Amino acid sequence: MLRFGRFLFGAATVLFLLAPLIAILPLAFTSSSMLTYPITQLSTRWFEELATADAWRRSIVISTRWFEELATADAWRRSIVNSLIIGSGTTALSTVLGTLAALALRRRIAFHSVLRTLFLLPMVVPAVVLGIGLQILLARLGLANTYAAVIVAHTVVAVPFVLVSISASLDGIDPQVERAAASLGASPARVYLLVTMPLTMPGILSGAALAFATSLDEVVLTLFVAGPNQLTLARQMFSSIRENISPVIVAAAFLFIVGTIAVGGLLAAVRQRTLRTAAMP
User: Fold this and answer.
1) What is the C-alpha separation between 54 and 105, in angstroms, rounded?
2) Residue 191's domain is classified under what CATH number?
3) Which residues contact 180 (CB under 8 A, 6 or more apart)?
4) What angle do CA 161, 167, 179 make, to 5 degrees?
5) Which DSSP symbol is given to 226?
6) pTM flag (> 0.85)
């Protein structure tokens, strides 16, 4: 009964989201010049006009002009390079810190709940509050307007995602497997490298991908801690929207979406391969 209720709720949610499309798409085949129901007669009149009218035909022509500008304009090219540098640094640092934190919290150490809450706190603290605090702290440390400052700021908000992802993978590991390796003479480091890490690799990769995506998407913290030489792609898009709306922004957003889908597909493939390998006798 509970499963049926969940299915019914999910179906109702999907129907609610798709209802506007379901309502408007049939009107593309009406013969009337008014968008009204009921449809008196089905027709392809408007598709023919879409293919023959000069204004519509010109609007459909595909051009790579804005992608070329995205790759050649100095401001956009520099922002892409900065995003890759900062994103890579954030991914490496947050993955290491998140992995160590997940391993430590797995042992149910003292103040376990308090420490876990502290690690997850950046997910709920307002970005403006976090940005002001990091700006003051990094300025006192002499790191203001540097790549290190942006990487540290992005790492603060990325570590919780890595921690959650790796903790979920660690919870699925049978502790007896690690004990068996230790009983055979393996040191704690070898147990982790040869047993624990391969089993948690899907979680590590997922956390790294989430960290990289978080860094690419972060704007507010970048506004507080980055200087003019650390403009990221997200901040450049934000500035361009405020100053002048250009199709280059859409091209950059398209690359964001395609990159996210590609990384997600790659992670799904790696996860499936890891699960198949673990299931083999």
Assistant:
1) 64
2) 1.10.3720.10
3) none
4) 155
5) -
6) no
Q: What phi, psi does 36 have (nearest 5°)?
A: -135, 155
Last residue of a domain, one of 30, 61, 92: 61
Report yes or no on 11 lying in a domain.
no
Position 13 in a domain: no
Q: How many Cβ atoms are within 10 Å of 226's Cβ, its own excluded?
A: 23
Give the closest residue to 79 by CA, choosing from 250, 216, 251.
216
- Percentage of the chain modeled with pLDDT above 70: 83
Rounded distance, CA 272 to CA 279, Å? 11
Residues counted in the chain: 281
Q: Which domain holds residue 244?
A: 67-279
Mean pLDDT (the chain) is 80
* Residues 274 and 165 grouped into a single domain: yes
Number of domains in the chain: 2
